[in-house]
Design a protein that fits this description.
Helix 2 links the parallel strand 2 and strand 3. The protein is an alpha/beta fold. It has a six-stranded mixed β-sheet with strand order 1-5-4-2-3-6, with helices on both faces. The protein has a five-stranded mixed β-sheet with strand order 8-7-9-10-11, sandwiched between helices. About 40% of the residues lie in helices and about 20% in strands. Helix 1 packs across helix 4 and helix 8 runs parallel beside helix 9. The protein folds into four domains: about 150 residues, Alpha-D-Glucose-1,6-Bisphosphate, subunit A, domain 3 (Alpha-D-Glucose-1,6-Bisphosphate, Chain A, domain 3); about 90 residues, Alpha-D-Glucose-1,6-Bisphosphate, subunit A, domain 3 (Alpha-D-Glucose-1,6-Bisphosphate, Chain A, domain 3, 3-Layer(aba) Sandwich); about 100 residues, Alpha-D-Glucose-1,6-Bisphosphate, Chain A, domain 3 (3-Layer(aba) Sandwich), CATH 3.40.120; about 80 residues, Alpha-D-phosphohexomutase, C-terminal domain (TATA-Binding Protein), CATH 3.30.310.
């Protein structure tokens, strides 16, 4: 395959992701592996893959590229993205590649690249260099061909994940788990074997045909079966994951989806009670509640640009104990500052077990104190033009304006953030108020109407 049959459009801000085979294909995966080996000279790299039907072939191609470039490869097989991160930092490897398109449509696939300790390779830290070398095809000849060895990391990974909680304190909670036919099912089952929970399973078998839809709990329609099952079984909580389970979503005991924003506050409080004075990192979308929880418990808050690469860099730089985006990415210092979709639900189960409070009760005060819109996607042909127009209209009345990530405007009793999507012609809108749902409804409708008028 020559350069003309490959596309640059799959190279995004944080990873490589796109439609098969136009944007992502085996030749590109091979060349990315070769480029990674040539630029970073890894001694040993891990390669994992998700459940998509195209993932085995892409993984094999990336492995060939790494090995032809002189790197020894540890093939960890079918796994979640965090298991690739874990393999790199736990075994002291030089880096890794994960074949996944997470929650993207079925005909998509992609690649996530990391260096030692799970440090991400993004557009700002080397992905553009990999793109240039991959498309040039001018790879230096390796002194040797690398070896390839298969390795199961399951037992070590499970032991590590369970180290974040005290299993002896867990109560026999009723939990509904929805893996969406992604990678989470086998992992959840291995964890559940060691826990006292009464579990109802949904869509747990990995299946790249996605018979129940693409595993993306951010879509409201994808939450409906889980919500119904929580109500039907009287469960203490429902848990769902995206395809590669680096994000974790919750339904409370009343059958209500819990916005990721409030889970950030709940977990921040958990860590600060255990480790007073530590630093919590949050993204710019909604953060008043996180700031309030952190201040009340004597911690320190640091704001970071959104996106996993930026969040990890900030968390590492400030040595934060925990950080999160309200989109359900949770990052942990003891997980080499990487994100995990398994650690959060275990901690939440421990909190519910120890406090005797329901999940609904645990988040209700936060929801009342800082109502939020949740993330709303707004189509935009000219994203930059819309952001300029919004700032021109609202900036003069704002107490503070920030351009850390898109544009954030603070009016004292309400604020909002608009940021461009890294993958689609969309603007992501988030708003919060100080205790007023009426103000939230009013201003949310007003800003959305204005964005739509600019975009008309």
């Amino acid at each position: 395959m020559n350069e003309l049959s490959m596309s640059h459009s799959g190279f995004k801000a944080y990873d490589i992701r796109g439609v098969m085979p136009a944007e992502i294909n085996e030749e590109l995966a091979y060349r990315v592996g070769r480029a990674y080996a040539a630029l970073y000279h890894p001694k040993t790299a891990a390669v994992g893959r998700d459940i998509r039907l195209s993932s085995p072939a892409l993984a094999a191609a990336a492995i060939r590229g790494l090995a032809d470039g002189g790197a020894d490869v540890v093939d960890i097989g079918l796994c979640g993205t965090e298991m690739m991160y874990f393999s790199v930092f736990h075994y002291g490897l030089s880096g890794g590649i994960m074949i996944t398109a997470s929650h993207n449509p079925q005909d998509n696939n992609g690649m996530k690249l990391v260096r030692e300790e799970g440090i991400p390779v993004s557009a700002d830290t080397g992905l553009r260099d990999i793109e240039r070398l991959a498309f040039s095809g001018e790879f230096p000849e390796a002194e040797r061909k690398g070896t390839v060895a298969e390795k199961s990391v399951m037992d070590d990974y499970i032991a590590h994940i369970l180290s974040y909680v005290d299993v002896s304190r867990m109560k026999p909670l009723r939990i509904v788990a929805d893996a969406g036919n992604g990678c989470a099912g086998p992992i959840f089952r291995r964890l559940a074997e060691k826990l006292p929970f009464r579990v109802t399973e949904m869509y747990m078998e990995p299946d790249g045909t996605f018979p129940h839809g693409v595993p993306n709990p951010m879509l409201e329609e994808n939450r409906v079966p889980l919500i119904a099952k929580v109500k039907e079984t009287g469960a203490d909580m429902g848990i769902a994951w995206d395809g590669d389970f680096d994000r974790c979503f919750f339904v409370d005991n009343e059958g209500k989806f819990v916005e990721g924003y409030y889970m950030v506050g709940l977990l921040a409080g958990y860590f600060l009670r255990l480790h007073p004075g530590e630093t919590i990192v949050h993204d710019p979308r909604c953060f008043w509640n996180t700031e309030a929880v952190t201040a009340r418990l004597g911690g320190r808050c640091v704001e970071s640009k959104g996106g996993h690469a930026f969040m990890k860099e900030t968390l590492r730089r400030v040595h934060g104990i925990y950080g999160a985006e309200m989109s359900a990415h949770h990052f942990f210092r003891d997980f080499s500052y990487c994100d995990s979709g398994m650690i959060p639900w275990l901690i939440v189960a421990e909190i519910v077990s120890e406090t005797g409070l329901s999940l609904a009760a645990l988040v209700r005060q936060m929801e009342d104190a800082f109502p939020c819109s949740g993330e709303i996607n707004l189509p935009a042909r000219d994203v930059a033009g819309v952001l300029r127009a919004v700032e021109e209209k609202y900036g003069g009345a704002a107490r503070a304006v920030s351009h850390l990530d898109g544009v954030s405007l603070d009016f004292g009793d309400w604020r909002f953030n608009l940021r461009p999507s890294n993958t689609e012609p969309l603007i992501r809108f988030n708003m919060e108020t100080r205790g007023s749902r009426a103000l939230l409804a009013e201003k949310q409708a007003e800003v959305i109407r204005f964005v739509e008028s600019v975009n008309a």
